[in-house]
Specification:
about 260 residues; single chain; about 80% helix; mainly alpha
Length: about 260
């Protein structure tokens, strides 16, 4: 088999497995929780319950909360990769896949590429919900799309981290618990929902060390200035670095199984 044929088989096998994972999402309503229900619910709850206390009203709070909920949603969707992979490993379905004439990496790659569509749906849900609540960005639609793509790339990069967690953990419950704690810590120990200056000094130190803070700052700067900032470029470079490090580690852990 030549290189071109082999590459074509890997691509087709990965696409087939991605389609399989998307079908699982469609046929399992629970999988829509972090894609549609959670961002909508959190946007409404934070905006209308806490907007008055934090910013004087929901309308004034939306420029803060929309980027925060957007990134929190990307984190939540990314955590699903590890849980789903662990469930498939525990059920033995990956063993059955390895007995089939397909590229051995296709089940893992298919899961991660299926997540990119879930991330797209989640990003659209977050931004549309904010718009329906009255959020009006000061920039054009093109920059809003750029912000959504940056958030999706960040979520997809982090999904490799959670995929590695799923491959190394002993149970889906352990992955789910660890992922949830990680997502909550990264979201709330940042500038996602409150200004950094409102935090105590120790929490400010933690927030400044939190990479999510810089992602949200970059998104807010793009939405405020309509330009691609140095922070946004740095976030993109870090995303590429995360994939470059954790994708090979995830493949190594997958090969161990």
């Amino acid at each position: 088999m030549d290189v071109q044929t082999h590459s074509g088989n890997v691509f087709m096998n990965t696409a087939t497995m991605a389609y399989r994972n998307l079908l699982k999402t469609v046929h399992n309503p629970d999988n829509f929780m972090d894609v549609i229900i959670q961002p909508t619910l959190f946007m409404l709850m934070f905006g209308y319950l806490f907007g008055g206390a934090i910013a004087g009203g929901a309308q004034a709070y939306l420029p803060t909360i929309v980027p925060g909920i957007l990134i929190q949603t990307m984190l939540s969707v990314g955590t699903g990769s590890g849980t789903q992979i662990r469930e498939d490993l525990d059920s033995g379905v990956f063993d059955r896949f390895k007995s089939l004439p397909m590229a051995h990496i296709a089940p893992l790659a298919g899961q991660l590429f299926a997540d990119s569509l879930r991330l797209l749906i989640a990003a659209m849900t977050s931004l549309i919900t904010g718009y329906l609540m009255g959020w009006r960005p000061a920039v054009g639609l093109g920059w809003v799309v750029a912000v959504g793509l940056l958030a999706i790339i960040t979520g997809w990069a982090l999904s490799w981290v959670f995929a590695l967690m799923g491959l190394l953990a002993k149970s889906a419950e352990a992955v789910n618990s660890a992922s949830l704690m990680t997502m909550l810590f990264l979201s709330f120990m940042s500038n996602a929902f409150v200004p950094l200056h409102s935090l105590t000094k120790p929490l400010q130190v933690i927030a400044h060390l939190n990479p999510v803070t810089y992602v949200i700052t970059a998104i807010r700067q793009i939405l405020a200035t309509g330009s691609w900032t140095h922070e946004a470029l740095l976030v993109l470079i870090v995303d590429v670095g995360i994939v470059g490090v954790f994708a090979p580690l995830a493949v190594w852990a997958y090969d161990r199984h």
